[in-house]
Amino acid sequence: MFKIEKTGKNAFKYLTDCEKQHNGLNNQFFAQYLEADNKHFKAILSGGMADDMGLEYSTDVFKSLMSGECPEALRNKIPYDLKNGKSFVNIKADYQAGTDLLSAPPKSVSMEFSLSDYDGKKKIVEAMRETDLEIQKFIAMKVKPSCDRGEYKDFDPSKTKIMVATFTHYEDRQIDPHIHNHGVLMNFAEFTFNEVNEKGEMVEVKKVLALDVEDIFKTQLEMSSMYDTILNARLRDKGYKTEYAQTSEGHQTFRLCGFTEAQEKGVSKRGEEIKEFIEQQKKKGKHFANMTMAEAEYKKLAQSQTREEKKELSTEEIWKTIRDETEKVMTKDEISNKNKVQKLGVNQIEKFDMNAFLERNIFNTNTYVSETELRKELSNALRFCGNHTSFVGLEKEINKQIERMKDPRNLGINALVEVDGAFTKLSTYQNEKKSLENLLLLSSKNSNDEQSKAQEQRNLLLLDKFKSESKFELNAGQEDACALVAKNNGLTVIVGDAGTGKTTSVIKFAAEMNKANGVNVFGLSTQTTTAEALEEAGIDKNNCLNTKLFLTKCYDKTGRFNREFIERNQNSVFIIDEAGMVGAEDYKKITDVVVATNSKLIIVGDQKQLSSVSYGHTFEQIQEELDKSFISRLDINTRQKEGASKEIAEAYRDKNIDKVFELLDRENCLITEKTSKKTIERLVNDYFEDKDSSKIIICGTNQEIDAVNGICRERVISEEIEKSKLDKKYKSSYDFKNQYEITVSRPTANGSRKKDLMFCAGDEVVFLKNMKGSVNNGQTGKITSIKKNNSGFDVVANVDGKEVKFNTNEYSYFNHSFALSSHKSQGKTYNNTYHLGSSKTTSNKSYVDGSRHRNQYKLYIDEKSVENFKKNAAKSSRKVTTIGNKTVEDAYAAYLKSIKTAPLSNQHLIGGIIKDNTEKYANSMSNKPLPSDREILEKYEMKQRQKRIDEELRQREIELQRKLADIERIEQNYKNQQNAMTLQKPTPYNSGRGMSR
């Protein structure tokens, strides 16, 4: 892990905790803080400038450098022009002393350090410091001169030399094992410029200038990934055995073999001691509502005890203390086994799989991936695919793999395309393109024959019946939309603002009309709860599915159609609700199914709300491409009936945020506090004061959700405990006396993030990932029992009246459900909404958040975030697409051309064949010569050609059978019409707006 902060941020807190009396964080105190542990492994100066100047670390030298000054002994010996005879740079009143560079290995390395003898400790420190030096080369290339006038732009970043002071610390503030390096990047560097001298010659000019470090903050995650990869290689070089691991935050890292995740977790926060502390407090009658509270109180006590203790301890005593802490979580047998694994184990070198790499979630959720993000992911992926001990070597390998992945001969349709410093896949463009083509194809499947006209008239009769039986009167927009549905087009698009009755009017009519006509209807949505609303709209429960579950029914594991499903569901109708949240890849797959089943598609949504988490904006794009006769728009708000609640939702819709704040202020529904903590506390208090059962808290980020959930649960448990104290006969719905600390997970871009939370019977939870055959992502339930066993916890929950059982070792994707994200709330309606505002909002998010309510909406926001909230709530999230991008389109066209003109060179098809055959022959006992690549390729092409011919014949047979079936069906329908009673001739339909059909 490599982290960058402004110098002194954590040191200042530490010194304050130690009750130091000072007027600010001066260099004397800072040096004292950093030098605290440097008894055996002295601080060093590095980065190029220090080497050139021959500088060695001392407290006085460090204090001078932190002040931007050259040490006095060197002022007449260096080739730099000093300001006022002593300073490297001009010192201003707001001079930034430097930048903190914190590097820390995985916890297992700290544990190994604590158990090692001096030589072992020295090897680990050397590996860490060597890695720091490599990362400093990266930093030197990213920093630039700080100059408001921009006169120092043309410099050579490869020749920049920086100055860094590095200190090694062995433990954290609780004297737990935590080896880490503190680096201080001084706020100046030597930059090299190419300038023309008086003779007209190009010469190098070196200048020491103040730093602009903005770019290193932007590349922090990439830097951290590279640090772990290089450190892993350095430790392997020194004889350590390592393996793949993942942090609790979901980041990829490594672990020393022989250690376990449970051991790391135990030593990282004195887990067992905290549990003992919780049990002790229970006996005193004190119960903690969440782990955060318990851990905070424990740490507060522990730190107050160890702070003074740490001051008095020598380095040897600190080393003994951290060894004792490690031995608390590892038995002698476990330590012995670890030593055996480290001594006898073998480091595995893996092969880099480009195709597997490109299946990572970053490519499924983003149309374009930034270069920094791609390089970070590659650094993670290459960690065990070689021995990358240097920054230069790792950088070279990353560049090589990027070039390989840009070549369609290696990856075919999965190849990368570079566009303005970002990357996309050819398959991303293909999916976006094909989804639009499929939708346009469906829109062309309309018939104006007599039979179709007669069917439309019958559908209009069904609309009259629907209107007469409806519990509410359809407004003009809803009538127009239902009339468009009655046309029975191959594609129907319904666009409607939040709360305009899309589900309760249009989808409900579409379901009833098609069921009356004997047509099978499917209701699809990205959200499980929205799929449940489709069931309420009259669609058969078994056919109301979230899109992911639906696609598993349509396709097998190889990505081919499920033939039985396709044949069974011919001539159906598919309705997609919240269609703006469906990504391009899913649109492509769904529309492929619709085309294959000769069915019709109705898509319903609103592009003003949140779009797909996955890449693509198909719903918005099809509206631009499609003839307007296939689109109907709803704009009359029926969710908020009247008054300010309606005006607020519509002001959010129109991005009139000033009006939103005026209305909220007038209605006393705008609550601001000085800090985010006080803001959350106020929100939670108001939420619990509200006795309406139909209410929701909406937050913008997972961090905010966790904070709100924690305080809400604290409130609930505290109230239940108080009621139990006051009334001994009171039976709480929460079994707060039997709470369990459970490690739960939340899906992330490339894995999951883990967190320890407290749960008991009675807790209401939201499920964050599908559990096959039991629950779907977004469903909520109530825990009815928890039992601990050797493999985790057996949990039983009531979900929609159904008992669901699972073990947390197998499924851990759930959380407390007091607060929901904007995405999880879209498509839902509540009487009252409590919205925790965030400066990171967009107009799409704020419109969703500000339109869930029927009656009341309240916005809670800290004072410093108000202006940014206003500014960002008026901005739409950027719609990014590959469609229309000439670079991508040209690359795709070139790819298609290469397939048609040179099939034998398509390495994405046959790249593995040469290798497989070569290995097969090499492993045989035969002395026959190996076949040439050309012979292998020709044999493969012959097989492929025969497959294509066979497939073409099969498709022709299917098409012939389909046409014969169509002829038989038409003949039968004609006979039925001749025998049927004459239908009452319907009156021409009129919506009341001059549109007759």
Automatic annotation (TrEMBL):
Family annotation (Gene3D superfamilies): 2.30.30.940, P-loop containing nucleotide triphosphate hydrolases (3.40.50.300)
Q: Which organism is it from?
A: Comamonas aquatica
In what ranges is there compositional bias, type Polar residues? 974-990
**Organism lineage:** Bacteria, Pseudomonadati, Pseudomonadota, Betaproteobacteria, Burkholderiales
**Which SUPFAM superfamilies would you find in this protein's record?**
Origin of replication-binding domain, RBD-like, P-loop containing nucleoside triphosphate hydrolases
* Protein name, as recorded: Relaxase domain-containing protein
User: InterPro entries of this UniProt entry?
Assistant: AAA+_ATPase, P-loop_NTPase, TrwC
- Annotated region (Disordered) at 974-997
Q: Which NCBIfam families match?
A: MobF
Q: Which domain of life is it from?
A: Bacteria
Which residues, by range, are in coiled-coil regions? none
Q: Which Pfam families match?
A: AAA_30, TrwC
Boundaries of every AAA+ ATPase domain copy? 488-642
